[in-house]
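cron nightly-structures :: item 1 of 1
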Amino acid sequence: MPLVRVKGKYQVTLPLTVREKAGLAVGDLLEAKVEGKKITLTPKSVIDRELTLALEDVRQGRIIGPFRTTKAAVRALRRTAP
């Protein structure tokens, strides 16, 4: 198990083997979680705000479809349009 050193500005460098196993790339975001004296870093992705709102609509059942054809989708959209 590789060791890392905490540097002057509390920065750490993840060893290559760790980065490769986790599939990390430059610019990736990590969520830092502390449990007791243990720190866990978990790769995270940022979801666009509009996508988050759309996913909430799906969870709440505020959707129409699926449709077998594009004509059926257009008809449904016309029926629900204000």
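cron nightly-structures :: done
Helices lie at 16-22, 49-59, 70-80.
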